[in-house]
Amino acid sequence: MKFNTKTIHAGQKPDELTGAVMPPVYFTSTYVQAAPNQHQGYDYARVGNPTRTALEKLIAGLEEADQCACFSSGVGAIDAIMKTLKPGDHVISTNDLYGGSYRLFTQVFEKYGIEFSFVDMSNIEEVEKSVKPSTKLMWIETPTNPLLRIIDIKKVAEIAKQAGALSVVDNTFATPYLQQPLLLGADTVMHSTTKYLGGHSDVIGGAVASSDADFMEKIRFQVKTTGAVPGPMDCYLLLRGIKTLSVRVERSVYNAKIIAKHLNTHESVGCVHYPGLLSHLHHELAADQMSDFGAMLSFELKDSTFEDASLFMQKTKIFALAESLGGVESLISHPASMTHGSIPKEVREKAGLKDTLIRLSVGIEDVDDLLEDLEQAFDK
Ligand SMILES: *Cc1c(COP(=O)(O)O)cnc(C)c1O
Known about the structure:
Blueprint: H1 3-9, H2 50-62, E1 67-71, H3 74-82, E2 90-94, H4 99-109, E3 115-119, H5 124-130, E4 135-141, H6 153-163, E5 166-170, H7 175-178, E6 188-192, E7 206-210, H8 213-226, H9 232-242, H10 245-264, E8 269-273, H11 283-289, E9 296-301, H12 306-315, E10 320-321, E11 331-333, H13 345-350, E12 357-361, H14 367-378
Parallel strand pairs: 2-3, 2-4, 4-5, 5-6, 10-11
Antiparallel strand pairs: 1-7, 6-7, 8-9, 9-12, 11-12
Helix pairs in contact: 1-2, 2-9, 3-4
Bound molecules: pyridoxal-5'-phosphate.
Pyridoxal-5'-phosphate is lined by residues 73-75, 98, 100-101, 141, 145, 170, 172-173, 192, 194-195, 204, 206.
């Protein structure tokens, strides 16, 4: 089955009992057993629910993985991955990443004795230099958030393999429609399904997908034992959202390219970070490992202060000032104080994230309206 067919059909078939086209939403916490420990694959809903199973099979299909486990949030999924490590283990992570991942790594897992090195992973030599005998995991987020740098998944996965470490890709920004990390050699993919997979800003969720059976057994153990599981309605919303993934992403990317080009030649704009621009530092790598360039971009106003950026974000009317991304509606945000507010200012600035940076998540509205909205916000 090809990708667009899988978004509609993978992991789902008409309900055997009724013929219902959509997977039923199973609101149940438990399942009757014929005799003690004799059941039809489901014993208690923390461990499994058929609506969740349909979603897991669907995401596994999209990521070319044998298995997937779903969580109640993206950070719940990351938490489960990190809990497969033990004190003394070392993790190499990109230094330009989702602020919530950074907070989880530094404020929870460092306390439990896991060591992190945050490096510019778009520089392969930096990654090689950071490997230690205790390196057990490489955390790759690409395109990076919010600077849209591109990390070479193939090369980092190769370094990880040689070091005996697991390579994990946070594929939230790209979506499986544009980037399939397992086919590039990564061991595991993680998603905040809250974003493009859900696509309608109405559900929080996470997922881990991999073909490494031993690793997935550890993840299933975390699902059962620590319990950050999604409810059946959340799973249903995701099953529904994913059906339109490719058409939503295509339209968002179409809009984002036009907006990026427009901003790139705008007299009031300083720099634009969008991998689809020929001037982007990693444009060729992006063209190589992604099937298109995504719908996230960031930029700075020319010679601007934080106040200028803040005023701009308050003036847009269609671009709503809000955290998150990947929904049908366009959003504008201030990474330094919002999504990345938990990263100390010195650390942020060292990674290149300035207080004047503005991030856009481009939705599927008419692009002329989006351009007009940005244009009126430039007017002083
Ligand atoms: C939002 C996000 C997360 C966290 O996911 P939640 O669903 O909000 O818990 C992780 N990584 C990236 C890249 C994100 O954008």
